[in-house]
Amino acid sequence: MPGFESGGGGFEEDVCVPSRRVVVTGATGLLGRAVLREFQNNDWWVLGTGYRRARPRHLRCDLLDEEAVRSFIQDYKPDVIVHCAAERRPDVVERHTEAAVHLNVHATATVAKEAASSGAFLIYISSDYVFDGRSPPHGEDDAPNPLNIYGRSKLEGERETLRHCPRAVVLRVPVLYGEVECVAESAVTALWSRVQQGEMESCTLDHWQQRFPTDTRDVATVCRKIAERGLQDPSIRGIFHFSAKEQMTKYEMAVAMAQAFNLPSAHLIPLTEQPGGALRPENPQLECSRLEMLGLSVEPRPFRLAITQSLWPFLPDKRWRQTVFH
Predict the structure, then answer these.
(1) What is the pLDDT of residues 9-56, one digit of tens each?
(2) Chain mean pLDDT for the chain
(3) What is the share, in percent, of the chain residues with pLDDT greater than 70?
(4) Whole-angstrom Cα distance, residue 101 to residue 105?
(5) What count of Cα atoms within 13 Å lies in the side-chain half-sphere of residue 203?
(6) What is the spatial distance between Cα 61 and Cα 69, in angstroms, rounded to a whole number?
(7) DSSP secondary-structure letter at 234?
(8) CA distance linking residue 310 with residue 305, whole number of Å
(9) Could you tell me which residues come within 8 angstroms of residue 19 by beta carbon, excluding any fewer than 6 positions away?
């Protein structure tokens, strides 16, 4: 079949599998891995897609290949599609705009069309960067006003989703962290290298932009709850917000990491001026009451506990594992 290949064994296996089927695009990424695991652990039959990082038991699929997307969705016949695949790094989007727009907008349109054609319920993962951050908190019905190309591409992805797929939810989330394959994989855990510099070298960190770092496990649980309700309740459609509640700059996140591991933080210097690179919203806080009123939210994990769970594998002294969770 053009455009994709199975990473291991094809679709059908000689085993008893759950009846509910979900496709997770971008299943090799930071959020996709958590979403995949959440559905697997709750009696769903799961197919994860990837491309450059596809591995055994994932489907290797180029989402820019419309025929490939159409073929695997028709073959697999998912009840739900969770579309996590995206270029989510604003500065990369600025430098490689065409490729990023193809993935964030055009591939999203293809997935939405095929979801509608197959009757699947679609969850599209969007971003708090669709807002300008000037009048927080931002509700689902507030007018978006993205400040950078990444935010505009995610907004266009939202519009393509809702235009092509009547059975769709747009889920906007903030900056994410979780179980990472390397600390650079998340803008949150990437701060760990700065924390570890210690007193040998001072380090300036952004203390201007307000963020709400959110654990991917919590987002994954929300996705599953939305999917399960959405299959039963036709009113579960449109735009929803989910976010952790702790407001932190990058500087404050780094200090919290240092405190969690009893490391020095005096070398971390707050920078209160707007950082360079792609423009960022100063405070893109999301108002999340719609999910909460429907009973589809979760209580976010506390940052200090969850970040230690993310970072302990990268400690030189693995004995920390014995003390972090107590």
Answers:
(1) 444 444 555 689 999 999 999 999 999 999 999 999 999 998 766 566
(2) 90
(3) 90
(4) 5
(5) 21
(6) 7
(7) T
(8) 9
(9) 45
- Considering the entire predicted model, what is its pTM? 0.90
Chain position carrying tokens 């990444």: 150
Q: Which of 12-26, 187-201, 232-246 has the lowest mean pLDDT?
A: 12-26
- Distance from the Cα of residue 234 to its chain's centroid: 25
- The 10 Å CB-count burial string (b at 16+, else e) for 140-163 is beeebbbbbbbbbbbbbbbbbbbe
Angle between helices 107-118 and 66-76 (to 10 degrees): 30
Q: Which two tokens mark 115? A: 């979801």
Q: Two tokens at 293?
A: 């009123």
| Collapsed DSSP state (helix, strand, coil) of residue 228 | helix
Residue in this structure with the two tokens 């594992």, named with its chain if needed: 321
Name the β-bridge partners of 168.
122
Q: Are 44 and 18 in contact (CB under 8 A)?
A: yes
User: Considering only CA atoms, which of 38, 40, 41, 44 is closest in space to residue 21?
Assistant: 44
Q: Which residues of 207-307 form beta strands (DSSP E)? A: 214-215, 238-241, 268-271
Are the CB atoms for 158 and 130 separated by under 8 Å? yes
Q: How far apart are CA 70 and CA 23, in angstroms?
A: 13
Say if residues 69 and 111 touch (Cβ distance below 8 Å): yes
Q: Which residues of 84-108 are buried (b: 16+ CB within 10 A; e: fewer)?
A: bbbbbebeebeeeeeebbbbbbbbb
Question: Could you tell me if 228 and 308 are in contact, meaning their C-beta atoms sit under 8 angstroms apart?
Answer: no
